[in-house]
Amino acid sequence: MSKDKVLSELEKAEKLFRQGKFKEAAQLYKKLITNNPNLARSGININLAHSIILSTDWSDVSQNLPPGISYPESSGWIKSLMTGLPINYDSKPIPWYTYPAIEFIESKIASNFRVFEYGSGQSTLWWAERVLKVISIESNRNWFSYLQEKMPNNVELSIRENEEEYAANINKYQNNYFDVIIIDGINRNKCVELSLSKLKETGFIIFDNTDNYQYDLGVKLLELKGYKRIDFYGMIPGYTYKNCTSVFFKDTKLLDRGGLPSEKESCLGLSCFQVTSPRPKNNCMLTESNIAECQAKFNLSYHVSFARICQDLVGFEGKDVLEVGGSLPSEFVFDYLHVKSWSAIETPDYEEYLKEAGGLSHTGTIIPNIKDTSNLGFDNRKLEKYNFFLENIENLPQEYYGKYDLIFSIATFEHIHKLAAALDKMFLALKPGGKLFSMFSPIWSAYDGHHLPKITDRAGKVFDFGNSPIPPWG
Fold first, then answer.
1. Does one domain contain both 87 and 40?
2. Is the pTM of this model over 0.85?
3. Exposure class string for 278-288: b at 16+ Cβ within 10 A, else e
């Protein structure tokens, strides 16, 4: 067979593979290798192996197992083999680390992390969904150009083709700056050496392919500097072989992060026992009979009663909820209201108004339990299941628009200075078809005074919660 004919047949086999016609692709690859044994040395036999694996009816395999228990499918390994990209079952990007490493790392991450990554790709997108900032350096210009268009705003992507410049790129940043540093790509031993001063004492290093002896120098340097090491051997997305991804750390508190194994939510799907013996769901519901119980348990008052009304009229279950003017406890909103996520906004001024009015306080807020309020603004935040913002709703930025199914606001509108602007922002925050549930009164007098924000009249007299021209009731 001529060289041109071989190339033509290879293109045909690759096309069959891309079309999902794996049996036909396998037959053609096998024929080409049989007639041209030298092709095996070029890696075409790997294509044949992948085609043979994918010729199996994996949906039929899964149907004969408990739903979700076939790890090759539920982890996305089959899809990765098909596409040549590391993705999970939902086709979302995942790192090209070993699967056990991904399972370990994902429960050790916090949303305010800063990550430095040597070697860019699907992992960059995976990290960007989970942390505050990703700084990623790439050495391949074509790959860099391909990635540039895909990167979100919290990724800073750079190109350095020179090995020394690639490793030294991290020197632009101050010491003890990063929570995670990933060693991948070129010149890895040098990357390790230059990274050490840039990692926080509580941070950790992910070193990929440590089973390659060429990286022994970097591994030994980390051990010499007092880092502990856990090696995660296992398969990687899209290939049939075993690799090793290692995690290095000094602070053993890293091992305390994450909940119980039975509670783990992984991007790679559920485990065997999570499928076959799932944790019983919390069946608590907010009812008329347990309103008083919830009020006592969570130190709440009228918020619980109005939550019960909202539950009947609109419903909370499975919804992304924005609470304006309060911060109901996470245990209450997840265990009794069964929301999908809860974001609470408290004005930074109201607690101060109450203190000035004689040390008053109000229920329905988690503020007294928060020691550090320095990082509770809207900017540079990654949304988690429960979020608390010490901000004014009228300052809500565009990245929060269209994120919520429901806005829940109790006894708040009477405290908002710029109500029209606040209502505009609430409308923008809702998803199409979203709803606003609010209980308020423009003029509301309580037994201990009127709920006025701090205002000054034309004569210069100051009125607030404890000093109001409107008399309290009773």
1. no
2. no
3. eeeeeebebee
